[in-house]
Amino acid sequence: YQLRTHQPLVKAYCYGRIQRFTRSMQELGAIPLPCDGLKMRAFEWPFPQDPATLHLKLFQEHQVEMPAYRWGDRLLVRVCLQHYVDDAELQRALQGLSESRVATGLL
């Protein structure tokens, strides 16, 4: 039952959520990196800031655990949309990232 029914439903649910979250991130200016149908996706965050500071701000002010790191000269943030990540957490992440864009003074 798990392999035939439950796992495909969970995968489809998580994949749909990553697609919706990707559109929201693009509206904020993020550039999605390929994810090949996984429940996880990295985004290039084009607003210059310290990744450790961004990570800490998201955690402390929005209760969101979202890795932020440098890859070469790019700033990346990563989201993992397992079934236990609720929509409220995703909205808090988007809010925190939106605020971080304004804080850079580039908008």
If you had to describe this structure to a student in words, what would you say it looks like?
With 107 residues, the protein is of the alpha+beta class. The chain has three helices and four strands, in the order H-E-E-H-E-E-H. A hairpin with a 2-residue loop joins strand 3 (68-71) and strand 4 (74-80). Helix 2 (51-62) crosses helix 3. The radius of gyration is 15 Å and the shape is globular. 16% of the residues are buried.
Kindly provide the radius of gyration, computed on alpha-carbon positions and rounded to a whole number of angstroms: 15 Å
SSE order, as H and E?
HEEHEEH
How far the N terminus sits from the C terminus, by CA atoms, comes to 50 Å
* Approximate strand percentage: 15-25%
Strand line-up in the sheet with most strands: 1-2-4-3
Large-scale geometry: globular
Largest sheet: 4 strands, antiparallel
What fraction, in percent, of the residue positions are helical? Answer: 40-55%
Poorly predicted parts:
none
Derived from helix and strand composition plus strand pairing, the structural class reads alpha+beta
Provide a count of the helices: 3
Mean pLDDT, nearest integer?
A: 87
In total, how many beta strands?
A: 4
